Amino acid sequence: MFTDLVLASAHHLLVFLLAAMIAMEAVIVRPDMSGGSARLLSRIDAYYGATAALVLLVGVARVVFGLKGWEAYVYNWAFWLKMVAFAVVGLLSIGPTMQIRKWRKNADEVAFTVLPGDVAKVRGSIRAQIGVFALIPVFAATMARYGY
Ligand code: HEM
């Protein structure tokens, strides 16, 4: 029972952190971004990746060590929809991460600027991530109650 409580609390905290980091990226990526913003963005993106890895780790720990037992999830369609949504968010974040790395490389130049087309692409991918991310709590609530 106590392990489940600790894992559930960690899961929720990490998920809120993840949401905060996507929101920060959405705010920072702008056509008038400075070199300083690009450095900050690169740090946030690294924390975003690390937090996603922790969410995955704690999530899997909940499946294995949670109160309901792993069988409650592996045969649950809502669980798999949630996993697919999580994977799609991960795939959608690859493009922005590549671009953020390029921006970070040039961030120390005095005449640092970003191309509007690159900004539009990254903003589009971030928006798509937010859209798919929003489905995850719905699948989570479903899998906790139905789906098996
Ligand atoms: C690979 C990643 C993940 C795994 C393996 C995972 C696994 C789990 C498990 C086993 C539970 C317990 C459900 C129950 O009480 O029966 C849970 C609950 C929950 N998860 Fe995840 N999770 C992952 C990622 C996420 C993400 C990214 C979010 C949010 C965007 C999220 C949001 C939630 C919520 C809100 C609950 C509580 C559901 C409820 O009790 O109503 N999870 N998750």
What is the element layout, followed by pairings?
Layout: H1 2-28, H2 35-65, H3 71-74, H4 77-92, H5 94-106, H6 116-145
Features:
148 residues, mainly alpha, 6 helices, 82% helix, elongated, binds protoporphyrin IX containing FE
Task: Explain the overall architecture.
By secondary structure, this protein is an all-alpha fold. It has one domain. It contains six helices and no strands. The chain has helices at 2-28, 35-65, 71-74, 77-92, 94-106, 116-145. The model has no long low-confidence stretch (mean pLDDT 97). The structure holds protoporphyrin IX containing FE. Protoporphyrin IX containing FE is lined by residues 11, 15, 55-56, 59-60, 62-63, 66, 68, 73, 83, 86, 133, 136-137, 140-141, 144.
